[in-house]
Amino acid sequence: MAPAPDSSQREAARTLEIMQRLREVEESILARAPEHDLEPSLDRIQAVMELAGDPQRTYPVIHLTGTNGKTTTARVIESILREMGLTTGRFTSPHLHSMLERISIGGRPIEAEKFLRSYAEVIPLIELVDARSAENDEPRMTYFEVLVAVAYAAFADAPVDVAIIEVGMGGSWDATNVADGVVSVITPIALDHQHFLGNRVTDIALEKSGIIKAGGIVISADQGDPAVTAILAERAEEVGAQIAVEGEQFGLDGADVALGGQALSVRGLSTTYPDLFLPFHGAHMAQNATLAIAAVEAFLGGGEQELDLDVLKAGLAAATSPGRLEVVRRSPTVLVDAAHNPAGATALRDGLQEAFTFTKLVGVVAILKDKDASEMLEILEPVLDEVIITRTTSARAMRPNDLGEIAKGIFGEARVTVVGDLPDALDRAAGIADESGVGGGVLATGSVITAAEVRMLLGVTDV
Questions:
Q1: Type and span of the H or E element at 104
Q2: In terms of Cα–Cα distance, which of 354, 383, 367, 366 is closest to 426?
Q3: Cβ contacts of 195 within 8 Å, gap of 6 or more
Q4: CA of 255: how far to CAs of 245, 287, 327, 374, 380, in Å?
Q5: What angle do CA 138, 142, 145 make, to 5 degrees?
Q6: DSSP characters over 222-241
Q7: Torsions phi, psi for 443 (to 5 deg)
């Protein structure tokens, strides 16, 4: 007779069973329409949430939209609130390495077993709504809508004290907008996803303003365009929300480069917070932190209650933002950044110039074919001595030869090398950087996928 399995064997078998089930569920979700191929509507997700008993209304929500900086701002908000003793839920997108990263509870990606439990709760309701849609010759729920439903159910089950929710795209018709944010955060708005949001920044602002809800508080970045700010203010007035704008009611009083990040002084809604350390580089990251502080003040005391300075300092110092101007290797230094549009490329360029000094910086660039590659490369040209053009494993990646031709027109042929395979491109760039001595570096950028795949190639997968 074979000996009975011991507890470690039983646990290993259970873990294997969970991982197999998770793979099956992920494949099922991925078989749905992707998040960049959507049918703008809240009808499907609203129907699922109503059938589920509206779990998104069982906890307060801080809702974020904008073009760039959403994920970092959400992560900083969460870090501060966790330091204050609150149990947090965070929903962000896209992910770097695992779908589970999108749903965070207590500052960590949701455990596979909890994800599966929440999925099991909502999938019968999703299938019911899918069947109704099929009867009306309408599309079934998308990949993103399913993940939103799972996240909202998981946060209710936890339960969380507050959920920090980042929109996927836009605002009014984004699936996350079935929740009502008591605080709405609007990061800088620029052109992106024009085929869904419009070709004018004011059109995009109008769509994004849809997350502003009655009786809430709006925390807006300095939008740099009075017309955009006016649209947000009009929406706030229309629904009876308060609005605070960076540079007016709150702002960044000072920022200096410090070892491993920046030293900030932030004028919040209620008081000024001096001597803050932020472990991120770049003015855009300082702006994200400033928005986050104001959002926490708005959430906890309506903007009238000071935050405990020591707790705030600890929350900021503990914040992380993987894939955002992140050092993932030394000797040579390898940076990854998820910049995927011109506004993101501008923030990246400025952050590099503020915080780093390289004798030679080699770019590894892979961009998706629906992005403005030409403008992104023009923005990055002043800070890259050479560029290795390549592609990621994404089916949406631009062909290296096509991207290479664009790059040659901007950098000149002598500064451009096309390498079809990302691992080989990274090796080539690291070799060139090594040849220039200790001051050489590599920057991998162009998309979230580029940052993620380079992180994995270098053995960095923590989030």
A1: strand 103-105
A2: 366
A3: 370
A4: 19, 10, 20, 31, 23
A5: 115
A6: --S-HHHHHHHHHHHHHHT-
A7: -120, 120
Whole-model pTM: value is 0.93
275 φ, ψ (degrees, to nearest 5): 55, 45
Specify the pLDDT at position 403.
97
pLDDT tens, residue by residue, 55-77: 999 999 999 999 889 999 999 99
Distance CA 389, CA 399 (A): 9
Sheet arrangement for strand 440-445: 326-329, 333-336, 440-445, 360-365, 386-389, 416-418
CB of 323 within 8 A of CB of 107?
Answer: no
Query: What is the β-pairing status of strands 416-418 and 386-389?
Result: parallel
**Percent of the chain beyond pLDDT 70?**
96
CB-CB neighbours of 108 under 10 Å: 11
- C-alpha span between 399 and 404 (Å, rounded): 8
Q: Residue 186: is it exposed, middle or buried by C-beta count within 10 angstroms (0-12/13-18/19+)? A: buried
Phi (first) and psi of residue 115, to 5 degrees: -60, -45
Residues whose CB falls within 8 Å of the CB of residue 432, separated by 6 or more in sequence, listed in order:
360, 362, 386, 440
